[in-house]
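Input record (one chain):
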Amino acid sequence: MKILLTGAAGQLGQALIASVPEGVELIATSRQEFDLADAEACRDAVFHHQPDWVLNAGAYTAVDKAESERDLAHAVNSGAPEAFANALGERGGRMLQLSTDFVFNGNQGSPYTVDQARDPLGVYGASKAAGEAAVQERLGRQGTGFVLRTSWVIGPVGKNFALTMLRLHRERDELAVVADQVGCPSSTLNLAQACWQAININNKGVELPPVMHWSDAGAASWYDVAVAVGDISQNLGLLDQPAHVKPITTADYPTPARRPSYSLLDCCSTRAALQLPCQHWQAALHDILQRVPNA
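The corresponding structure, as predicted from the sequence alone:
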């Protein structure tokens, strides 16, 4: 089985490469191979490599910069998925599109189910929502295009909130972290497993839901995660003393992009479909911090 992976240099891409199953010929690509903002290059990659699957883990993820770089965000997050889907629709093949909790507005105060309508708040969420729609419209009828939404992605490498907090705990005595945005972290270690499981069982003839949700178990605010990073890192000997974490509101920390105040994903149907157990986000965070290189 041949799989074309995008975003290979990213934190999820590295986790996917590290856990690639036996029997998979993985074509791992990043911006060095082709630019996701170039729709023609995306199309050419499909026809050149002729993959059985496109695993689109690459994305424009600069949420705040997207407000001023709308065209680039849409080119990467909606134009690339559309180009991949169109090419696969022509020559055959399946696609797993990674997406985000930012496709929802966060107003309902209860976990979002896989069948709820998209209603993004900003450019980043809108671009990812458009990417989802493109995959569903082109490949959905054939049952060959799938969307996997996730949230608050963290891992032992790359740029993410957990590693930023680890650094700041080392550098400062006090941190101020938003406490009124609620969701759940998603470990790249567990998310990669979910991606490979989805592909594996679908190859064996098991029908997948067209839209899936995956995060670790539980719920948290960014403040909760920041505190946990300090406590776990101290227990692991990564810190002598964690910083004091002060809870603040979203209004106290204005950003160019609006963020959903509640973006917890209901993952029950996806866990059942993938036949995978869940791990609480604090246990997953512990596993991540244990694996931080040169910590």
